[in-house]
Amino acid sequence: xxxxxxxxxxxxxxxxxxxxxxxxxxxxxxxxxxxxxxxxxxxxxxxxxxxxxxxxxxxxxxxxxxxxxxxxxxxxxxxxx
Length: 81
Prior knowledge:
- There is one protein chain.
- This protein is an alpha+beta fold.
- The chain has one domain.
- Helices cover 30% and strands 35% of the residues.
- The protein is built from one helix and four strands.
- It has one helix spanning 2-25; strands spanning 35-42, 50-56, 62-66, 71-78.
- The chain is globular, with a radius of gyration of 19 Å.
- Residues 11-26 have low confidence and may be disordered.
C-alpha cells in the first residue's frame, strides 16, 4: 500500500512540475479581441533600458523589433469600432 502511494505521489509531482514551470514562463498577458497591444521588453528587472518591443495591431498583425526578455511591460488600448 505504501509503495502504491509513493508511486502515485511521484507521478503527480512529475506531471505538475512541467505545468507549473510553463505557466510561470508564459505569464505575459495575451492581447484581447478588439484591442491593440504593446509589449516592451527590458534588459533587467529595474526596467530602465528597453531592448525591444512587440506590437499587435487591431487587425491582428504582429510586429517584433529588437530582443525579447522576461522583463516586460504590457499595455493595451481598445480599437475603434
